Amino acid sequence: MIKIYHNPRCSKSRQGLAIVEESGKEFEVIKYLDKVTTEKEVKEILQLLNISAIELVRKNEAIWKENFKGKKLSENEIISTLVKYPKLIERPIVINNSKAIIGRPPSNIFSIL
Predict the structure, then answer these.
(1) How confident is the model over 43-57, as pLDDT tens digits?
(2) pTM of this prediction?
(3) What is the pLDDT of residue 36?
(4) How would you classify the pairing of strands 2-5 and 93-96?
(5) Exposure pattern of 15-53 as b/e (b: 16+ CB <10 Å)?
(6) What's the order of all strands across the beta sheet hosting 2-5?
(7) How, if at all, do strands 2-5 and 99-102 pair?
(8) Which residues of the chain have pLDDT under 70?
(9) What's the number of CA atoms in the CB half-sphere (13 Å) around residue 25?
(10) At what angle do helices 39-49 and 75-84 cross, to 10 degrees?
(11) Which positions are catalytic?
């Protein structure tokens, strides 16, 4: 089943959700700002995306700029930060079986549907 990590306040995330809905395939919406994402989940997402934790960070968010920008953080420290501040996670993330993609731009999502 397809999973979409979604933030309803984000226009790109809403566009991504529309693409998934229009696919006609069964999917699950995970509102990751409402549901606690664990370190294990973040690590699994990173593995599926085949990226490092820093690549999943929204570096223009005030939380990042004010607290973490310019600091040398380990992979695990960044993962812990993403769990503590889920707003920092790039969105939307769409997972389909063993594939995942960040829907920025939303048209990226078509490649895994």
Answers:
(1) 999 999 999 999 999
(2) 0.93
(3) 82
(4) antiparallel
(5) bbbebbeeeeeebebbebbeeebeeebbeebbebbeeeb
(6) 27-30, 2-5, 93-96, 99-102
(7) unpaired
(8) none
(9) 18
(10) 120
(11) 10
Which tokens in the block code for residue 23? 């696919």
Provide φ and ψ at 17, rounded to 5°: -60, -40
Residue identified by tokens 């812990």 is 80
Q: What is the Cα–Cα distance from 76 to 32, expressed in whole angstroms?
A: 19
Element (H, E) at 14: helix 11-22
Query: Which structure tokens are listed for 52?
Result: 């490092």
3: closest CA among 22, 17, 18? 17
Residue 73: its pLDDT value, please? 97
Q: How many other C-beta atoms lie within 10 A of the C-beta of residue 87?
A: 16
